[in-house]
TrEMBL record:
It comes from the Bacteria. Residues 29-96, 130-177 form the RNA polymerase sigma-70 region domain. This is RNA polymerase sigma-70 factor (ECF subfamily). The lineage of its organism: Bacteria, Pseudomonadati, Acidobacteriota, Terriglobia, Terriglobales. The keyword Nucleotide-binding does not apply. The keyword DNA-binding applies. GO terms for molecular function: DNA binding; sigma factor activity. SUPFAM superfamilies: Sigma2 domain of RNA polymerase sigma factors, Sigma3 and sigma4 domains of RNA polymerase sigma factors. It comes from Tunturiibacter empetritectus. Belongs to the sigma-70 factor family. ECF subfamily.
Length: 181
């Protein structure tokens, strides 16, 4: 059963009760607005645990100081969304490294020359794949990047199984010619 959306007056009454220490009123506010606060924090932080921390901080702030919200400036839900966004941004700023990048010694397990060569080969392969006819490229991508079998590709595209196999074989032949041994 859907209940009507909360009005500003309902929020004001609940905040007044919270000011007097009413835990049930605080629970009602939490039930009403926790999803908004959490979703805004999660969108900014991209970390569920950090978003939960922001959610807890904000509702603890309301519990300690319910006068922090001024009803003449807007709705409680809007205010909570803005506070959640601001607190989340502050949390991101606190996470930034304190040491200067120049002072950090970075160890690398990678051979940078091999990595550069691999990246060059990957770029060349992408270029060759982009030059393939559209049907061959899409079929090759479905097989190798989406992990589909030849039969699954045939079912999805409506093409005969032999056509799917020929397209993949032709695409691989083109790639082989671009990379002599």
């Amino acid at each position: 059963m859907n209940s009507p959306p909360p009005s500003g007056q309902d929020d004001a009454v609940l905040l007044g009760l919270v000011q007097r220490g009413d835990e049930y009123a605080m629970a009602a506010l939490f039930d009403r607005y926790s999803k908004v606060v959490y979703s805004v924090a999660l969108r900014v932080l991209r970390d569920p645990a950090a978003a939960e921390d922001v959610l807890q901080e904000i509702f603890m702030q309301i519990w300690r100081n319910p006068d922090g919200f001024v009803a003449t400036r807007g709705s409680l839900g809007g205010w909570l969304a803005v506070v959640s966004r601001n607190r989340s941004i502050d949390a991101l700023r606190r996470k930034r490294p304190m040491e200067s990048v120049d002072d950090m010694a970075l160890a690398s397990n990678y051979n940078l020359a091999n990595e550069a060569e691999r990246n060059s080969l990957v770029e060349k392969a992408r270029g060759v794949i982009n030059l393939l006819p559209v049907e061959q490229r899409k079929t090759l991508e479905m097989a190798f990047f989406d992990g589909l079998t030849h039969s699954e590709i045939a079912e999805m595209t409506g093409d005969p199984l032999g056509t799917v196999k020929t397209r993949i074989r032709s695409a691989l032949t083109s790639l082989r010619k671009a990379f002599p041994a």
